Amino acid sequence: MPELPEVETTRRGIEGHLTGRKLTGWTVRNPALRWPVEVPEGLRGQTIRAVGRRAKYLLLHLDAGALILHLGMSGSLRVLPADAPVLKHDHVDLLLDDGRMLRFNDPRRFGSLLWQPVPVMEHWLLRGLGPEPLEASFSGAYLKTAARRRKVAVKNFIMDAHVVVGVGNIYANEALFMAGIRPSMRAQRVTLARYQQLAAAIRDVLESAIAMGGTTLRDFVNQDGQPGYFRQSLYVYGRQGEPCRVCGTRLKGLRIGQRATVFCPKCQPAQSMVAREC
Asked: Which residue range is the domain that position 92 belongs to?
């Protein structure tokens, strides 16, 4: 499933092809994605002013609002000639004034394309989201304050989009390892010092993933290209039972919030980061 780094890499890949182009029309072959596709007739002729991102949502900013696009579990985007042959699962084409189009392909149909007039951030999918993990407003102090009286596992806490956006399962596992925090620990019991380490770890793992995605993602103007989401050398995720890359201890696994969780019992001790004042 595309996570924040893949979505950001997609944004960067299509941005130069779309910004400043006029939307001349569209073809919706399958309107029944996760929600019914919304492309109002009044958008014809409007200019794409910018290609943005909020959490895992891509925002095609037009004159009067934005098209909000979510890749779901299997979606991908390509910028192609307007007469490119239609392949299976090509659900939506957005036609541009330069003879090309933005094509949305989604085999599992969990993606979406919705319209929101200005103010864009008032859309129900975007309203109430937490800070972006790569922005200055995200910090250890913020996490510590937000975790007050939160008895949920710290892994679930940082995966809550109302707390911070874009920390998917892979990155939650990796960041908690980097910060030396046991994933099952209650959020309210983690110290400020550890939250400071965790905020930095989240930022580092996401920035690293974005950098890797920028060099390995396939061509966005090739019909036959695959999404090509990057492959990282992960410390814990997907490595249950293998030796820790840092200390050699065998990695353990459990399920938290119905999601696979892997940690190192030595590098992520159960008690060393508990706040005395809790």
From this structure: 4-122
**pLDDT category of residue 275 using cuts at 50, 70 and 90:** very low
| Residue carrying the six token digits 């008032």 | 122
| Residue 226: alpha-carbon gap to chain centroid | 18
Asked if residue 232 lies in contact with residue 212, where contact means CB atoms within 8 angstroms, the answer is yes
Note if 144 is an active site residue.
no
Q: Report the predicted TM-score, pTM, of the whole model to 2 decimal places.
A: 0.87
Judge whether 259 counts as a catalytic residue. yes
From 3, 6, 8, 174, active-site residue: 3
Q: Could you tell me the CATH number of the domain that includes residue 9?
A: 3.20.190.10
Q: Is the peptide bond before 85 cis (omega within 30 degrees of 0)?
A: no
Q: Which of 54, 56, 78, 155 is catalytic?
A: 56
pLDDT tens-digit map of 40-87: 999 999 999 999 999 999 999 999 999 999 999 888 899 999 999 999
